[in-house]
Amino acid sequence: MQSAADSEAASLAAATLLARAVDETVATRGAAHLALSGGSTPRRCYELLGPLVEDWRAVHLWFCDERCVPPDDPLSNSRMAREALDAPGATWHRIPGELGAAAAAAAYERELADVVLDAALLGIGEDGHTASLFPGHPALAAAGRAVAVHDAPKPPPERVSLTLQALNGARELVLLVTGREKAPALAAALAEPSRSVPASLLARARLTVVATRDALASR
């Protein structure tokens, strides 16, 4: 657990953790695989992360989830990440959401193959969801690496997400949480694991929570 005074400090702390994981992995294994998340919270983290990584050329960038929209759509996670993260020479592996949830999930499953993620940046919604894994949703029980998410309770309803199996197979998980409105969800995520709070199902042995003080107010 890392507590930060505000969202800027939290974003820098998360970026520093990810940069360290990437640089150490490249140094020891020759390449690193980092999974990114969408939403409003990670953008500043990506802006800060870019210059912290020594060399992006050996880094593969994946996505924890994507909305089923074209890649240039304002709602696209990959568009936001590319706009915010300056990663010259990195290999981007976007989820082809424009194909529709089922086809995009199948394509990403094939592309991931036997890749082990070295680190993944995740967030949490006020309902406790993480990536595009929502409370009580059938996608929580999916096997494999990527799952089509239909009828998501948050628009757009069609999405693709990495499975819990894929996320929990990552060597390091970073959960970035900012804002008082997230405090109840974070408290629930740090309590007993429950399908009603998907973020509580993340592998805690490899999880580092970076949260603003107001997001920790319920603890």
Account of the 3D structure:
With 219 residues, the protein is α/β, with parallel strands linked by helices. It has one domain (2-216): 3-Layer(aba) Sandwich (Rossmann fold). It contains 6 helices and 10 strands. A 7-stranded parallel beta sheet has the order 1-10-9-6-2-3-5. Strand 2, helix 2 and strand 3 form a beta-alpha-beta unit. The mean pLDDT is 96.
Main attributes of the structure:
219 residues, alpha/beta, Rossmann fold, seven-stranded parallel β-sheet, three-stranded antiparallel β-sheet, 6 helices, 10 strands, 29% helix, 19% strand, globular
Architecture per CATH nomenclature, i.e. the level-2 architecture = 3-Layer(aba) Sandwich
**CATH level-1 class:** Alpha Beta
Q: What value does the average pLDDT take? A: 96
**Arrangement of strands in the largest sheet:** 1-10-9-6-2-3-5
The ordered string of helix (H) and strand (E) elements is EHEHEEHEHEEEHEHE
Number of domains: 1
The shape, in one word, is: globular
**Strand percentage:** 15-25%
Radius of gyration of CA atoms, rounded to a whole number: 16 Å
What is the number of E strands?
A: 10
